[in-house]
Amino acid sequence: MVTTDWEVLEKRISCRSYREKKMIEEEKLEKLSAFIDELNQESGLHFQLQASKKVGVPAIKLASSMFSGTVYAFAALVGSDDPVSAEKIGYYGEKLVLYAEKLGLGTCWVAGTYDKKSFWVEVPPEEKLWGVITLGYAADNTPAKQKMIRATIRRKDRRLEEFLEARQEFDRQPLWLQKGVEAVKLGPSAVNQQPVNIVFQEGKVFARIWKKGNGLEFIDLGIAKLQFEIGAASCGVHGTWEFGEMGGFRIK
Predict the structure, then answer these.
(1) Contact call for residues 107 and 73 (beta carbons, < 8 A)
(2) What is the CB neighbour count within 10 angstroms for residue 74?
(3) Do 64 and 189 fall into the same domain?
(4) In terms of domains, do 35 and 67 share one?
(5) Which CATH number goes with the domain that contains 49?
(6) pLDDT per residue as tens digits for the range 81-103
(7) How far apart are the first and last CA of the chain?
(8) Does a structural domain hold residue 151?
(9) Residue 8 near residue 99, CB atoms below 8 Å
(10) 45-66 pLDDT tens trace
(11) 119 and 11: one domain?
């Protein structure tokens, strides 16, 4: 069982195949709910946990072409409709993903392949539902269709060196920086666009969106920043990010 954030990053895959009759235990739902409350208080977002109460009844209906099995719980990602809020959705949403994975659950970021009429969430004025994170137990055997989807997505991956903009070559950079960039590459990304690069200039680290257009790149920016943070911390270098494109990484 994974115990650290770095171990989660290395082992996690997006879960698109869930067990039909395995519901999440009440104790784990309570932990998820409490953690979401903490994230909302810190971020100003309005994440909401929803769970089914009956075996065989999904909490959310997902596109059968992309998912299989029954999803008994999910987190609705609600926040203001602006770039910084979108970035926070990514940053704090990924925190939730890693927490759920430590509880032994499978997770997947879902931006649009779900039926909005299959559930209800509270969306305050001037805010929007950015997407959901599915939560549940991964199926024992991954269907061939899901394996094909995963393989197709991963074939589009960029090379590790492409994630870093710096004067020196990647393998000549400090180990903590290399590990941070590796963590960014390991992170999830909307339709696998991987639109975020790490910039290393005069000893300072920034994150920028190099590819725009899918509308979700600021969520990816938030995810990438958390991933980098964890990668650097695995080498003993701890820091925090400034929100916003080209926000800096401040080493503590």
Answers:
(1) no
(2) 27
(3) no
(4) yes
(5) 3.40.109.10
(6) 999 999 999 999 999 999 999 99
(7) 30
(8) no
(9) no
(10) 999 999 999 999 999 999 988 8
(11) yes
Claim to verify: residue 227 and residue 125 sit in the same structural domain: no
pLDDT in tens, 112-166: 889 999 999 999 999 999 999 999 999 987 656 555 655 555 556 789 999 999 9
Alpha-carbon distance 38 to 126, whole Å?
A: 22
- Rounded to whole angstroms, how far apart are CA atoms 247 and 225? 9
Task: Report DSSP letters for 107-172, one per residue.
Answer: EEEESSSB-GGG------TTEEEEEEEEEEPBPSS--HHHHHHHHHHHTTPPPGGGGEE-SS-GGG
Query: Whole domain around residue 230: which residue ranges?
Result: 156-251
Dihedral sign, CA of 131, 190, 67, 139? negative
Asked if residue 131 belongs to a domain, the reply is yes
- Amino acid found at 251: I
Phi/psi at 17 (nearest 5 deg)? -130, 115
Residue written as token pair 């004025």: 125
Q: How far apart are CA 180 and CA 198, in angstroms?
A: 9
- Residues with Cβ within 8 Å of residue 161, at least 6 apart in sequence: 169, 170
- Written as one letter, the residue type at 13 is I
pTM equals 0.94
25 DSSP assignment: P
Residue 202: strand, helix, or coil: coil
DSSP-derived 3-state class of residue 35: helix
